[in-house]
Amino acid sequence: MMARIPLRKPPAQNTRGSAAVEFAVISPVLFLFLFGTIEFGRLLMVEQCLTNAAREGARLAVLQGATSGQVISRINAYLDSCGIDGESITITPANPSGVDVDQPITITVSVPYASIAWIPGSFAGLDSTVLQTSSVMRKEG
Description:
The chain is an alpha+beta fold. It has helices at residues 18-61, 68-82, and strands at residues 88-92, 104-112, 130-138. α1 (18-61) runs antiparallel to α2.
């Protein structure tokens, strides 16, 4: 008959705080990556909303009898549905109803990054960045 060899467990007192120390070392990098991913996703979402708003404004501006007030109202309504404030809207030429048929009308929508950021303060130096998009369509006859 063989003798039983008792299984020995490593002493627990040497590794008690190692998990906490490892988490303390890695957590700032983990949270920076997580919040950076969330903020970058927000930036892409806002850019897409600006593009769609400019397109909606241009689609209205090329119709006969459309006024700049109607165009701005439609763009503001679209951006409000996206939760975007602080936008700047430029219509070129300023009066779309006075444009000749087949002439281009440009709608430019821009918003400062600081007004759409979810994380306050400077994140990767983007506070002075302005997100801007344009849509150009020809006046319909």
